[in-house]
Amino acid sequence: MTTMPLHSVNLSARVTTLLARTFPEYVPGVVHEGFRVESVDQQEPRRMFVRWHGGTPTRPVWTHGPALGREQYKAQILEVLAREGYAVTNVPGRMDVFVNDRPHDTSGPRFAAVANDVPVSAPWLVMDLWTRAHVATAGTEEEAAAEAMDAERHHTLTDARMVTAPDLYDFLDQADEVLGDGLVWLRREMRQGIKYTEPVRHERLDALVDVANALRRGEPVARDERLVTYETSAPTGTCAVHWVPESLAPAVGFFPGEGWEQGPEVHAAIGLLISAGLTPVRYGERIGGGSVMCEASGFMVSAADPLDRGVPGVHVDGIGSPMAAQTQGVPEALRAAGWEVTGDPGWTGAWAAYPPAE
User: What's the gap between Cα 145 and its chain centre?
Assistant: First the structure.
C-alpha cells in the first residue's frame, strides 16, 4: 500500500474544499461531471493537478461568445486558485491545472530552462519550479531561457497587480516594458548632483512598482542601455533614481573595458588579494556613455597597459569609499607573495605592482 505524503494529502484536501464551494466534485459512478484533484506521479511532494471530468471539451464551432464546458471551467478554476494565493500552472493545450502552495521564500526565479530527460519531442523545457510542471518547449537552451524570462515577467506583473490599486495597472505594463528583462535589480540614488548612494538589491516586483509610480506621477523616465532613470522629490530635495538589473556575469576584480587585455598577471594579483581576505570590485551591466554599473566597491586590478599585455606589471586601485579600510592590506598581501609594490604618489589607495621574477 502506497501512502500519500502528508503535504500532498493536506494540499489535496485544501484545494478540494476550496473548489467545492463553487464547483461540483466529480465522484466516479455518482457525480458524472465535476472537478477532481489528482496526482501525476509518485514523487514527494507529488505534483498535484485539478482535472474537469465530463462536459463539453471545447466550444462548438457554430457558437459565439465565451467558451463552454471544460475550457470554461479550467479558466474559472485557475482564477479561484490564483485568487486564494496558490501557485497555479496553465499549460497551453492541456485541460489540467497544476497547483501547489506558494513557497515561503519567493525571492528566486520561478521559471527555469532545463534539459528534457526525453529529448525526442524537444531538447529543452521551460519549467515552473513551484509546481514542477513544464509550460513550454524549446529547441535550444537560449530559446528556453528567453521563454523562461517571458514567463517570469508575466508572473511578476501578475503579482504586482495583486499588491497595487487598479489605477496603477496600465503604468505597471509600461514599467514592465521600460525595465525589460532582469529578476534582481539594483537601486541607487544621487542627491544634489554630488555622489551616488551604495546600490541596494531589490526583487523585480519592487522595481516594477517604483517605476510604475514614477510614470503615474508624470516624471520623465529614461533608459540608456540597461539603466532606467528618473527624478523624484525627496525630503532633502530632488533625487535622481537609478534602476539597473544585477548582472548575471559580473566582472569581478577588474573593469570590463572593451579591448582591454586581462593577462595572467592581472588574474594572479586578483587571486592573491582575494585569498588575503580583501574584497574585489564588482562591475555589472553597461549603462550608457561607456559607463559600467559598479555593483559593489572593492579593489580593482588592471594591466599596466590595458591595451598591451607585453608591458609588465599591474595597477591596483580602490574603487568606492569603503576601500579606505582595505588600502593598507593591498601592498601587504602582494609583498608577502614576493611582488614588488610601489604607491602612486598622485593617488591615495593606488598601487603599481610587479610579480616576482621567474
Answer: 12
